[in-house]
Amino acid sequence: MSKETKTLSGLNVNIWKQDENTIHLSIKNPHEGKEAWLTSIEHTDKHDGKQMARTHNNLFRDLKSILETNGKW
Q: Engineering a disulfide at 18: which of 22, 27, 40, 50 sits with its beta carbon 3.0 to 4.6 angstroms away?
């Protein structure tokens, strides 16, 4: 019996720099559910070091690294 996977593949994801502390993320879903959405990930520097709903420093750092490596930052 094979193990069931919870991975949903085939999503179309785009990321781009909005400003020094904000990365936008758009996702298109070819599967069941919401077709597409746009969200942002912010660094706490945008809010004087305070945690807010959209602040995710580790994820921000990783996405920024991808953008920098590809000359998009």
A: 22
- Write out pLDDT tens, residues 10-43: 999 999 999 999 999 999 999 998 999 999 999 9
Distances (CA, A) of 67 to 6, 13, 15, 71, 73: 27, 13, 8, 6, 5
* Closest alpha carbon to 64 in 54, 52, 73, 51: 73
Q: In sequence order, which ranges of the chain are alpha helices (DSSP H)?
A: 57-69
Alpha carbon dihedral 56, 8, 73, 45, in 10-degree steps, equals -10
The residue ranges of every structural domain in the chain are: 12-69
> Cβ distance 45 to 52 under 8 Å?
no
Maximal C-alpha separation, the chain:
52
